[in-house]
């Protein structure tokens, strides 16, 4: 538990698409695993109780590129990338995405072995469909957290009864029964579902994404934290029971080309404080993503993020308040279902 949260609550730090291969991997090998993210961001991560991200690459030396002539990008990080995740304090990653099998099943197996050997839990991929669909299970001070990873693309990466791969669900057709049932039967105080859904570079969540998020919440998900668009979307806070629907977390670390208007070089470190009754508070720290380097956003970058998040959240009836070192999200008509946690001391965490 952090010093800023009362007993019985857990603060989750949720990070979006994190790519540690290609240019990021090259920089990692030159500068070392602790230079990709600045200490200001790391400090904010350390202030959370648990840290979960979408690992959008394999971490391996083995394997060959996936045999698909239409696949344009293949992301493989060097083994030292595990130390970057450890330095950031990452507790769990989801591998349910369109890059988990970029270098085939051998590389996926190596990735799982390296992560588990470092004490990092995984979800969303495994040696067979049962393992891929199983949640990562975490616990802080007796609060049990289950994290489910799932992706709606590509179907060719799907795990089978005797085949490794990802937890695939055709969410465009609705949330499958197996996923609803797994959430309901999770036997956890807090359930996080982190789907990789929809196309890249969309300004807002597609209709099927919004519908699927509602179904996941109704099944018992405390937090739905999506990714895939590479830009953050607005969030909807449900009050009865208290749930947080974060449609897209955006990017956290990469070497991607910047879209001139969507600004995928600006992002958020999302933080959700929860207890057994639901969501207590949601806030976000503005980030600047340079080439293979992430830092806290300042000046015009921070102002752009603030404006963008306010407009994106207003669509879902969510207000955004500037709290100095973070942006705090609240329902438009606050009814007391999201009581504030203990106040942060002046000057940040």
Distance between the termini: 14 Å
Helix content: 10-25%
Please state the CA-atom Rg, rounded to the nearest Å. Answer: 18 Å
Helix run count: 8
Low-confidence stretches: 334-349
Q: How many strands, what sense, and barrel or not for the largest sheet?
A: 10 strands, mixed
Question: Structural class, from secondary structure content?
Answer: alpha/beta
| Strand and helix order | EHHEEEHEHEEHEEEHEHEEEEEEEHEE
Q: Tell me the strand percentage band.
A: 25-35%
What is the mean predicted local confidence, pLDDT? 94
Strand segment count: 20
Describe the structure.
It is built from 8 helices and 20 strands. It starts with 9 loop residues before the first strand and ends in an 18-residue tail after the last strand. A hairpin with a 2-residue loop joins strand 16 and strand 17. With 349 residues, it is an alpha/beta fold. The strands form 4 sheets. Strands 1, 2, 5, 6, 15, 16, 17, 18, 19 and 20 form a 10-stranded mixed sheet that branches. Strands 8-9-11-12-14-13 form a 6-stranded mixed sheet, with helices on one face. Residues 334-349 have low confidence and may be disordered.
